Amino acid sequence: MTADESWRLLEQLVQEVNQQTEQLKEMQRKARELSATATSEDGMVTVTVGPRGEVRTIEFDPRVYRRLSPSELSACVVEQIGHATRQVSAGMKELMEPFVPDLPFDDLFGEGTDFESFLPRPPGTT
Questions:
Q1: CB atoms within 10 A of CB 59
Q2: CB-CB neighbours of 101 under 10 Å
Q3: Which of 116 and 18 is assigned the larger pLDDT?
């Protein structure tokens, strides 16, 4: 291999690394902005969660207090948080897939494992 060929190869490798770095930065930006919203079938409860599954907003239809008991309302909120968190996990997996296309989440980490299980948890939670 000549010196010119070596330099061209090195330039090509540097260009590829720079391109991958930019793609990773873009993926990180999109991941930070990722959110999902879930609304109950009756439209009474809407929940939005952020990229780590943190609850950002909970909205209630004004009629919710006449239609649902406190325990039904609580269960509905929890259910919508679960739906939105699964949507965020799916979005995060979709963002990451180009970088780890063949990562078999279920085979490696157990059936039903999703990206959320890899996220850091706030102190004091389990």
A1: 13
A2: 7
A3: 18
Q: Using an 8 Å Cβ cutoff, are 84 and 118 in contact?
A: no
Which range marks the domain in which residue 41 is found?
A: 34-118
Domain presence at residue 1: no
What element of type H or E holds 36?
strand 36-39
Inter-residue contact 49 to 88 (CB < 8 Å) = yes
106 versus 18: the higher-pLDDT residue is 18
Residue 12 lies in a domain: no
pTM score over 0.70: no
Cα separation, 120 vs 38, in Å, equals 23
| In a domain? residue 27 | no
Query: What's the rounded Cα separation, in Å, for the pair 94 and 7?
Result: 36
Domains identified in the chain, total number? 1
Q: Is 87 inside any structural domain? A: yes
